Amino acid sequence: MSGRGCFAVNLARWGVVPYITAWTSEVMSEVAVVVRGGRIAYVDERAGDRDGAGVLWTRVGFSPGVGVPEFKSVHSLRQREAMRRRLCQVCGTPCGRSALWMLSQEEYESAEGPWPAPVMTAHPPVCPGCVERSGRLCPHLRKGYVVLRPRRVAPAAISGVLYQPTSTGLKAGAPTTIAHDDPRTRWLRAAQLHVTLEDYEVINLGNMLTTGSQARPRSGPGVSVSVSGLP
Ligand SMILES: [Zn+2]
Description:
The protein has 231 residues and is mainly beta. It has one domain. It is 13% helix and 33% strand. It contains four helices and ten strands. The strands form three sheets. Strands 4, 6, 7, 8, 9 and 10 form a six-stranded mixed beta sheet that branches. Strands 1-5 form a two-stranded antiparallel ribbon. The chain is globular and about 50 Å long. The relative contact order is 0.18. It binds zinc ion (ZN). Zinc ion binds next to α4.
């Protein structure tokens, strides 16, 4: 799964740019990565390069609205903030207790275990007011989605570039995702935060019922479904 920006062309036409979308002005800094204190570090590290757990994050410019929106790219720090502070990934407003999560059918069905097994996602929440247009315009949700209201949201994993210390220096690996408490996070240059949604209620089944495909909700006790929209 990935938290790639999902508002390809349609929202651009509409003139709305989602909060977590990266802009062309927000370039990644070409800063050298070194080993310091048994972990990777930036050669000129600054306050804000690490999160509260000490994980080093990709250093990227912060200038939303400047340049052209890159709808296929997610801004790492806004994605992390949206997850951490429950900000709507579309409009950026704090969702608080009304935070909802829209998962593609694929994400939802990837949960392992009996219903309601925790589901992991890199997509931040949406506010109730942004659900309907997200479902219509977000390409990754078009094949079917669910809207969940979880009672618990827990940090799960971090994706990014994992470095490997070698005798000839640091070697950057391919992008990967590891558990947020994996000791290897000290070698990770983080790019996106993943959470697990636990003990959730299904609020809406998107187009999973209306398509008549195999996209059936995983049934279980306590399923609360409103196919006509949000309550
Ligand atoms: Zn919103």
